[in-house]
Write a structure and sequence with these properties.
Structural class: mainly alpha
Largest sheet: none
Helix content: over 70%
Distance between the termini: 9 Å
Order of helices and strands: HHHHHHHHHHHHHHHHHHHH
Radius of gyration: 23 Å
Number of domains: 2
Shape: globular
């Protein structure tokens, strides 16, 4: 149910992005101003969610749910505290919106900066509703009610699609100059984005009755036992703050490309390329990797270190089989995939290198997911902070050096490539540190399997790219429109998949049979 919800959410999220691109364009000063402003609530919430809610509140929710009253007394305190924190953060962030926009952007004109600030005033209130959505969702999960949290984000996408569609009907579609954005258009776009988040939160509250809990405001916060988890939260918040610094530096470099999207992909194109990159990551790594995390946690808690290593090896093989294919195939179909989220062919050609640069790290990030979760299974959030700090240092230094290297275009793709290189080096360091912690990992079989999968995927990717070239490349039918681009991706993916499976079957890869059983079991359910 969770995997199906994730798939539906991601697909409707892609449709939402397509409609948004149709409404305001993928490149240009106005689209970038909106992209930066609408991304701001996500940056702020990441710290609150993973650093505070996930690391501190969620474990307490699970623990308190076992109390005689189902945790009603302590959960009332928790929800009151969380509501106060979220309101305070949202108000402060809204007040200092001009400062926040200035920190994560380097717009070339005052007009673009002022437009981004105007959008931010309408987008930042999303922080409060993001927080309440996560808090209610985690409470439902803790009480065994999983489906609503997985499916509710679809509401956000539907509301946004309707709102952006109405925007096109009222004001016309396509890229427009900054001067064309009046107060009504700013309010309409910002409010549509925020109402989507409000809608998904309201939908989740509709399922609260299933918890059997009746909460009431309680401002007496002593005795909640949050102090014991302060150290864990500190490392988690620190790790996310490091990530925010990296994002700020990257966007300050990238936003200089807003005015010349044909040569350099803009910030909005960066986010669209990242969205495409995250589709296979979410569907494959998150859906399949998360159950392995549960197993790892049980084995680690019981001290079964050999079982932990065995699970790691199996998880890497399983993820590698699918992730390698996804990376190679999306690289072959980069231009058609980018065309789906672009206003025209020139923007697609500028976005495709960014997508390819991100995909370089798809396999390393899948391995990192397993390695990082193994540290978490042992209750270690300190070590992940340090190898994240290592990655951040490389990403920041490389991003700042990118303008000196990519003098004639490709600036945004260069920043994305630096991000992928730093993530690859990060996973190597993480494996080294985990090996020292556990005294050997025995994941050589999993890593060698990835090499075998890559060798099998190369002819599949080459065949997919050959079809793209045979169809005329960027000047052919595959990149002439959004619908044609979707058909092109489907054709390239189908041919590549057939060749990939055929090569694996020819060499009798044992992992092929395992993943086949997994897929059949999912479809059977």
């Amino acid at each position: 149910m969770i995997a199906a919800g994730t798939l539906a959410s991601r697909v409707t999220g892609l449709l939402r992005s397509i409609v948004l691109v149709s409404a305001i364009g993928a490149g240009g000063l106005g689209a970038d101003a909106f992209a930066i402003a609408n991304q701001m609530p996500n940056y702020i919430f990441q710290v609150i969610s993973t650093g505070v809610l996930t690391a501190v509140f969620v474990p307490q929710i699970v623990k308190w749910s076992q109390e005689e009253d189902g945790g009603r007394r302590l959960l009332s305190k928790l929800f009151t505290l969380a509501t106060v924190i979220l309101l305070a953060v949202t108000v402060i962030a809204t007040v200092i919106a001009p400062l926040l926009i200035g920190l994560i952007s380097s717009f070339q004109t005052d007009a673009q900066y002022e437009l981004a600030v105007a959008f931010a005033y309408w987008c930042i209130p999303q922080v409060f509703f993001y927080g309440m959505f996560a808090l209610v969702g985690e409470t439902l999960n803790a009480r065994g009610i999983f489906a609503p949290y997985a499916w509710a984000p679809i509401t956000n996408n539907i509301v946004s699609i309707a709102g952006f569609g109405l925007f096109m009907w009222l004001f016309g579609p396509g890229r427009r100059d900054i001067e064309a954005y009046d107060g009504t258009m700013i309010v309409f776009l910002g409010l549509t984005a925020t109402l989507g988040i409000v809608a998904q939160t309201v939908v989740l509250f509709a399922f609260w009755r299933r918890t059997g809990l009746r909460l009431s405001p309680d401002f007496h916060w002593r005795g909640m036992g949050l102090g014991q988890l302060r150290r864990v939260a500190t490392w988690s918040v620190g790790m996310l703050l490091v990530g925010l610094v990296v994002s700020a530096v990257q966007q300050r470099v990238i936003t200089t490309a807003s005015s010349d999207a044909v040569v350099n992909a803009s910030s909005n194109m960066w986010f669209n390329a990242w969205l495409v990159f995250m589709l296979p990551y979410s569907l494959i790594v998150m859906s399949i990797g998360t159950p392995y995390f549960t197993q790892l946690s049980h084995h680690a808690h019981a001290g079964r270190h050999d079982a932990v290593k065995s699970d790691m090896n199996t998880a890497i093989k399983t993820l590698g089989l699918l992730v390698v294919f996804a990376a190679v195939t999306l690289m072959a179909a980069a231009v058609p995939a980018a065309r789906i989220f672009s206003s025209d062919l020139a923007e697609a050609e500028a976005t495709a290198p960014v997508l390819i640069s991100f995909l370089v790290a798809l396999v390393p990030m899948a391995v990192l997911f397993i390695v990082q979760r193994t540290f978490y299974a042992y209750g270690d959030t300190r070590t992940p902070f340090f190898f994240t700090l290592f990655q951040a240092a490389i990403a920041i230094a490389g991003s700042l050096a990118t303008p000196l290297i990519f003098l004639h275009g490709g600036l945004t793709a260069g920043v994305a490539l630096v991000q992928s290189i730093s993530s690859t080096l990060q996973v190597l360091l993480a494996i080294f540190l985990l090996r020292r912690k556990l005294g050997g990992l025995r994941i050589g079989g999993g890593l060698w399997a990835i090499v075998r999968f890559t060798l099998a995927a190369l002819p599949a990717g080459a065949a997919g790219f050959a079809i793209y070239l045979w169809a005329g490349g960027a000047d052919g039918w595959m990149a002439q429109g959004k619908i044609l681009a979707v058909l092109a991706c489907a054709l390239i993916g189908t041919v590549s998949l057939a060749i990939y499976v055929g090569v694996l079957a020819l060499f009798r890869a044992p992992e092929l049979k395992q993943i086949g059983s997994l897929v059949r079991s999912r479809l059977g359910r």
